[in-house]
Amino acid sequence: MTTRREGRELALQALYSKDLVLQDANTTLKRITESFSEGEEPTLSVNSKAYAFASELVNGVVSNLQAIDSRIAEKSKHWSMARMARVDLNILRLAVFELLYRPDIPKNVTMNEAIEVAKKFGADDSASFVNGILDEIASTVTDKE
């Protein structure tokens, strides 16, 4: 797994957990990574670059949540955000943050990564759902945005 994929997955877990327990996303991210080093099982290490990328994504989503959610709501025809699965919504939030605020990451990379994360963490139809909405949003994003 690439460092950025690991970061995206950590960020998704933090945002999802934040939605469930209504806790600060950075605190949640820290707890998730700490849980990798606790317990009696062999520890999993979290790459420091992956953690830094996850933290950047989480902070970016939280700081720009209103603009991100507005884009998602605008393009999610027939789906209110309240009806969306929390996993799918947070995958969309992460990807929309990248599309809008990280011009250094190519659009196709952002979309492919979101689809792969949706396949891993979402329901059977999550990948196609995420792809459909992201395709609509990506088509409206200019390179300078």
Word description of this protein:
The chain is built from 7 helices and no strands. The chain has 145 residues and is mainly α. The chain has a single domain, classed as Orthogonal Bundle (N-utilizing Substance Protein B Homolog, Chain A), CATH 1.10.940.10.
Lay out the secondary structure:
Layout lengths: L2 H19 L3 H11 L12 H16 L1 H11 L10 H16 L5 H15 L4 H13 L7
Helix pairs in contact: 1-2, 1-3, 1-5, 2-3, 3-5, 4-5, 5-6, 5-7, 6-7
Protein name: Transcription antitermination protein NusB
Pfam family, one: NusB
Function: Involved in transcription antitermination. Required for transcription of ribosomal RNA (rRNA) genes. Binds specifically to the boxA antiterminator sequence of the ribosomal RNA (rrn) operons.
CA radius of gyration is 15 Å
Number of domains: 1
Through-space gap between termini: 29 Å
Task: State the name of the first-level CATH class.
Answer: Mainly Alpha
Q: Based on Cα principal axes, name the global outline.
A: globular
Mean pLDDT: 86
Count of DSSP-assigned helices: 7
Label the CATH architecture. Answer: Orthogonal Bundle
Give me the CATH superfamily. NusB-like
Determine the structural class based on helices, strands and strand pairing.
mainly alpha
The percentage of residues in β strands lies in under 5%
CATH topology type: N-utilizing Substance Protein B Homolog, Chain A
Share of helical residues: 55-70%
Strands, count:
0
**What are the low-pLDDT stretches, counting only 5+ consecutive residues below 50?**
38-44
Largest pleated sheet: none
**Order of secondary-structure elements:** HHHHHHH
